[in-house]
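Backbone geometry:

***
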Amino acid sequence: AKNGNVNVVHYLRILGAELAVLNGKKEKAKDSFNAAIAASRRIGFLQDRALAHELASAYFKAQGDEFWRNYHIECSRTSYQEWGCSEKVEQLYVRCKDVKE
């Protein structure tokens, strides 16, 4: 991405995070999710920031880390709401009933 399209950097970070999850590289996964969220925010892709938060939430849930799971799902809901995707927000409320606002 250094010499390519800067609009895909966040996608590379999301893919890197998911690959790290599959390979059991916990620190790399956390760092890559955070990098994806930061890159999405920096270039203004709200929907992709929401997705990165959603995927990070699922990762932290699988790790048994409720604090970060809840943080990321709430950030995901907020980002999807800001993007205007109320159906997705409702889906996340249904799927994550145990996470309060």
